[in-house]
Design goal:
The protein is built from 13 helices and 17 strands. The protein is α+β, with helices and mostly antiparallel strands. Strand 10 and strand 11 form a beta hairpin. The strands form 4 sheets. Strands 7, 8, 9, 10, 11, 12, 14, 15 and 17 form a 9-stranded antiparallel β-sheet that branches. Helix content is 33%, strand content 24%. It is globular and about 55 Å long.
Length: 407
């Protein structure tokens, strides 16, 4: 892929002497400027993508920061006979939320209460206590996820989904109020190595909306509490999906002393792999390249050396904007980028752009490295107090809300 999160991967591949081809549907993707060669083929165009791989005599294929990309590369790798850690037969357990939850329940693993949406939508909702979450079965990037607060909202939300035609099926899921976590791991010879567990901190939500994820913090304050239980869950899962190698991630809640799995995915979390490197020294890019070119024993030794040992506290702070507003002045964010505590940053909009939360869900991202959680809080409050973006009519575009707190 050619987006920002792939730049380091392309640089490392070229440094190693690999002829590097970047391919996706983004004609102006920044990684295309530094790769040896590039193509403008959408990853969903499987046949053309496969032919490109065959024509170029590709050794391997890498793309691990999106559920959609994981699914498409699984199909491409199968047709092009490229090394890849998943097969098309495994996809139903990684991409279909209903099939995955069925398997997890069979394995004795807790999942949120859920049901598939049918025409009897109002009858299904009677089995749940409000609020409930509605999400597509095979979605990606948090698209088309809503929260239904009460019975009067049922018909309006259901009509919206029927009119959108973006996805063929949806599910209802109970809304869990509990601490939430992101976990990144790597599988070697059917064994699971935890790379990192992060606190996934969200804002207090608005009526009918899922909350914004404002902070991702590595390592989690509760890593020692959840790591053993989380590792056992992933081992059970891959034993039944037959994943023997490659990346795997999990979003989960920790509720009443028990892990409740929200989702397991066959990928690395986008915009988080850098935080893992900052805190532990482990390079996700090295792992991705080594998977294609090195033996399992080399990867295993590397994982044993670094995971999950963190020397620093690292966090991604995320800001969101109000849809349809035109960006006039974001100079305050530019100044924050230059602050000494900011290690990396990205502004997703330029002045003159119209905010579109569907195509660009984040407005800005700032990566922070510090020594203590206390310092992290001070830095966060400083950034929030300084962050500002004005519209053409002088309106504040950035959404600033308090974080949801749990005991």
């Amino acid at each position: 892929g050619s987006l920002h999160e792939n730049l380091e991967l392309v640089n490392l591949a070229k440094k190693r002497g690999y002829f590097t081809i970047v391919c996706d549907g983004y004609k102006d993707g920044p990684a295309k400027q530094i790769a040896d060669k590039s193509y403008d083929i959408d990853v969903r165009d499987v046949d053309n993508f496969v032919q490109m791989c065959i024509d170029e005599k590709a050794d391997g294929i890498i793309g691990s920061f999106s559920d959609l990309i994981f699914e498409q590369i699984t199909k491409i790798a199968d047709k092009a006979h490229l090394k890849w850690y998943a097969t098309p037969q495994m996809l139903k357990y990684y991409r279909n939320k209903d099939e995955q939850k069925k398997l997890l329940k069979q394995l004795g693993i807790s999942v949120p209460k859920h049901k598939i949406i049918s025409n009897n939508f109002s009858e299904i909702i009677e089995d749940f206590s409000f609020p409930v979450v509605v999400k597509p079965l095979e979605g990606w990037g948090s698209r088309e996820i809503s929260v239904i607060e009460n019975s009067t909202e049922v018909n309006r939300i259901f009509s919206k989904y029927q009119d959108s035609h973006l996805f063929s099926a949806y599910e209802i899921e109970e809304y869990i109020c509990a601490p939430e976590f992101n976990l990144t791991a790597w599988v070697v010879d059917s064994d699971v190595y935890i790379i990192g567990i992060a606190d996934r901190e969200k804002s207090i939500r608005n009526f009918g909306q899922i909350p914004f994820v404002n902070r991702i913090i590595y390592p989690s304050r509760k890593i020692d509490v959840v790591i053993q239980q989380a590792t056992l869950i992933l081992k059970k899962f891959i034993a039944h999906t037959y994943q023997r190698s490659g990346p795997i991630s999990m979003q989960f809640f920790y509720h009443n002393g028990n892990i409740v799995v929200c989702e397991i995915a066959g990928r690395i979390f986008g915009y988080e792999h850098e935080l893992i490197t900052y805190g532990s020294g482990l390079s996700i890019e090295k792992l991705l390249l080594d998977y294609v070119y090195e033996e399992d024993v080399s990867i295993e030794n590397y994982l044993k050396k670094y995971s999950p040992v963190y020397k620093k506290i690292c966090a991604g702070f995320y800001f969101f904007g109000i849809s349809n507003e035109i960006v006039a002045d974001q100079s305050a964010l530019v100044r924050i980028k230059d602050a000494p505590y900011v290690t990396d940053s990205e502004l997703f909009y330029s002045e003159g752009d119209t905010v579109d939360n569907k195509s660009k869900p984040y407005f800005a991202r700032f990566d922070i490295i510090t020594d203590t959680y206390e310092n992290l809080e001070k830095i966060y409050l400083d950034i929030v107090s300084r962050a500002s973006v004005l519209s053409t009519d002088g309106k504040e575009i950035l959404i600033k809300k308090k974080l949801e707190k749990f005991n």
